[in-house]
């Protein structure tokens, strides 16, 4: 990234302009790949039980208001296209979650009905067989010994599983880190190509004092989307805490969210720090930078609960 900024500066592009462009491009790459890890995680597990539908629904409402605000404000076509992409991507993830929830609910009902039908017929023969075994007390002694051996076997398996899970956790963390670095490289390279080809040029700040006019309704929609983004993660945080587990959640999903929000906010701030420009973009800054605190909370939950209620090794 420093090389790209140095190259840009050598041909008349200021470091702030270059950094704003690079951060904006990295943010774009993060948003494009954001939902893919969670879609894959749901597919691998055949379930979406780990994801809060309230989280996705409020987030979807935030994306809709963001799209409406972008259209109302007459923002550049790329911003509007990205907002449309967000809405479609949200619908895909929500549809996948609803599908798995419906299918698994049907399977659970069928399994419950089968177990209810067979329970009574299975209990009586089992009791008769137990009553006819050996001398009084012999079955109890054998059961006690078998139970002891069974507990020892479970303990050995759990110990081995914890070791394997620790190794797997470190491997997953390495893969996620490599993925984040790859997204940063793709974003920076995309900006360099766009700049060299003339597709990207520095966007001037309108007004002599660095101000930028925006429709009041668009500003209101921007604040509405910020409120939705800030509130969306709360149901997921509550769900993780209540179940003491992050099972079914993709850590990379939240890492990309953190990267996207951080670089989005940085792209705005590096573009201009004029007071009026800052106030104009305040709702979008609140929506991006504010959710980073909630993403950090979910990272702490991953560390505390892991995937199955046991301590994780990601930190």
The count of strands amounts to: 0
The helix/strand series, from N terminus to C terminus, equals HHHHHHHHHH
Give the termini distance in whole angstroms: 26 Å
The largest pleated sheet is described as: none
Q: Which structural class is indicated by helix and strand composition?
A: mainly alpha
User: Over the alpha carbons, how many angstroms does the gyration radius reach?
Assistant: 27 Å
Query: What is the overall silhouette?
Result: elongated
Strand content: under 5%
- Poorly predicted runs are 138-143, 159-167, 308-315
Provide the domain count: 1
Catalytic activity: L-histidine(out) + L-arginine(in) = L-histidine(in) + L-arginine(out)
Membrane topology: Multi-pass membrane protein
Organism: Lepidopterella palustris CBS 459.81
InterPro entries: LAAT-1, PQ-loop_rpt
Describe the structure.
It catalyses: L-histidine(out) + L-arginine(in) = L-histidine(in) + L-arginine(out). It is found in: Membrane. The protein has helices spanning 2-10, 15-33, 36-45, 53-73, 77-131, 138-196, 216-243, 251-271, 275-280, 282-305. It is mostly helical. Helix 2 packs antiparallel against helix 8 (251-271), helix 7 (216-243) packs parallel to helix 10 (282-305) and helix 8 runs antiparallel to helix 10 (282-305).
